Amino acid sequence: MLSIATDTRIFVASGATDMRKGFDGLQGLVTGVLEQDPLSGHLFLFVNRRRDKLKILYWDGDGLAIWYRRLEQGTFQMPTLADDRQSAEIKSEELTMLLRGVDLNSVRRRKRFSLAG
User: Fold this and answer.
1) Helix (H) or strand (E) holding 28
2) Which residues lie closer than 8 Å to 85 by C-beta, 6 or more apart?
3) From CA 55, how far away is CA 66, in angstroms rounded?
4) pLDDT value at position 113?
5) Sheet with 53-59: strands ordered across
6) What local confidence, expressed as pLDDT, does residue 46 receive?
7) DSSP label at residue 1
8) For strand 43-47 and strand 53-59, is the pairing parallel, antiparallel, or unpaired?
9) Which end of the chain, N or C, is less surrounded by CB atoms within 10 Å?
10) How large is the greatest C-alpha to C-alpha distance in the chain, in angstroms?
């Protein structure tokens, strides 16, 4: 499992991604489609059309790394996005739930204080 710092942002690509893409292909999607810096230290999550494979691209301090997961059964429940959005940002606990098979749309959150508003 990944260890994620609290200030790390996690971006989820909206469309299906060809899982044959490696470092250069995913880095191109991060800069071209998500319009983010792949060397920022943030996580960039991609899923295939069948939603049974998932890749996370991230900068590991001295190079890019890919974390890859394939489900033997079931699918990943991705967050729903508006049609015009290329990506969504999720929190680290939402990533954990997504990887564990929890439907993020059915999660009910209680109100908590946040400096961000």
Assistant:
1) helix 23-32
2) 14
3) 7
4) 87
5) 64-70, 53-59, 43-47, 10-16, 87-90
6) 96
7) -
8) antiparallel
9) C
10) 42
Phi first, then psi, for residue 21 (nearest 5°) are: -65, 140
Q: Kindly report whether the global pTM for this prediction surpasses the value 0.90.
A: no
85: pLDDT strictly greater than 90: no
CA distance 50 to 46: 12
Chain centre distance of CA 56:
6
Phi, psi dihedral angles at 78 (to 5 degrees): -85, 155
Residue whose entry in the numeric block shows the structure tokens 């049974």: 52
Per-residue DSSP letter, 51: S
Instruction: Please give the share of the chain, as a percent, with pLDDT higher than 90.
Output: 56
Q: What CA–CA distance (Å, rounded) separates 32 from 15?
A: 14
In whole angstroms, what separates CA 5 from the centre of its chain? Answer: 15
The contacts of residue 3 (CB under 8 Å, 6+ apart) are none
